Automatic annotation (TrEMBL):
The keyword GTP-binding is assigned to this record: no
Record localization: Cytoplasm
Pfam families for the chain: Sua5_C (PF03481), Sua5_yciO_yrdC (PF01300)
Function: Required for the formation of a threonylcarbamoyl group on adenosine at position 37 (t(6)A37) in tRNAs that read codons beginning with adenine.
NCBIfam families reported in the protein's UniProt record: L-threonylcarbamoyladenylate synthase (TIGR00057)
InterPro entries referenced in this protein's UniProt entry, alphabetically: DHBP_synth_RibB-like_a/b_dom, Sua5-like_dom, Sua5/YwlC_C, Sua5_C, T(6)A37_SUA5, TC-AMP_synthase_SUA5
Source species: Sediminibacterium sp. KACHI17
Enzyme class: transferase
PANTHER family: SUA5 (PTHR17490), THREONYLCARBAMOYL-AMP SYNTHASE (PTHR17490:SF16)
Catalysed reaction, written as an equation: L-threonine + hydrogencarbonate + ATP = L-threonylcarbamoyladenylate + diphosphate + H2O
UniProt name for this protein: Threonylcarbamoyl-AMP synthase
Amino acid sequence: MPIITNDINLVADSLMQHDVAAIPTETVYGLAGNIFSEKAIRRIYEVKQRPLFNPLIVHIHDVSEMEKVASAIPPLAQALAEKFWPGPLTLLLPKKDSVPDLITAGKDTVAVRVPNHPVTLSLLQQLPFPLAAPSANPFGSISPTTAEHVASYFKDEFPYILDGGACKKGIESTIIGFNEDGAIIYRYGSLAIEEIENITGPLQEYIRNEENPDAPGMLLRHYAPATTTILSSDIKKSIAENTGRKIGLMLFRDTYTNGQVTVVETLSASGSMEEAASNLYAAMHRLDHHQLDIIIAERFPDKGLGRSINDRLQRATHP
Ligand code: AMP
Ligand code: MG
């Protein structure tokens, strides 16, 4: 297993040696490497078994660093960066030639953000290069929100996991791109689109399909437990339809006692979508370890972070 450590210097040294390392962010744990090290970047794809057509997010420690990777910054992008960074918002910007094609999967845009985690901000400040970091999980599986989740996925593919505790937001960043008409939503995430639209006006919807996986977070099946999982708006009916099977429930706010159900995860007893988002992946990880026949996940209200949670649940439940 990689070593779980709190020692930022140790991890910085390792990254300087072209190794990859798992790092905490407020969204999910990332598997990080020097964006200018071909060895490190290739290793990220290899360790995750991530297809090379899936570009990586570049992590910087300050808004002012944006111009080191972007060749132009649309005024809307500048406004969003100033309002929401550090925070769970990724911006797609025209890339500088110096950003390797491996990072952007040959695209002419680079994805960039300032993560809101004190440990990783301090790491980024020490390093003379930005870090590319996709989520620290095998491609397609549930994203890790604790150092232990990361450790459970890997044997000794890289030396260190930098421990920053449980991720506060718990789902990936919201990804926004730009065109002549304004801003485009590429991926729903930890920053609710209503907050973004306060600045950008109505977002354009990105046209998504399997042949055009501009953002792999958009692949129809992603973020998925190994256990068969279904999404339900009527929990009682779904339970009845699965009589005789070993059932796990993942509910928004309710608890549920019923002889037919083996285990119940309630994401937020107080009904907070923020709390539910931060608990989502950890609950999926736990349910996945119960040898269930089926996980029945409750659909969320389709607003605010509920949209982002439903997006993840839809991908987790796609056959
Ligand atoms: P992950 O960090 O594992 O959530 O993966 C990074 C996400 O950023 C993926 O969904 C990528 O497709 C997306 N991404 C990174 N760079 C770009 C880009 N240039 N254009 C579109 N999406 C991108
Ligand atoms: Mg990922």
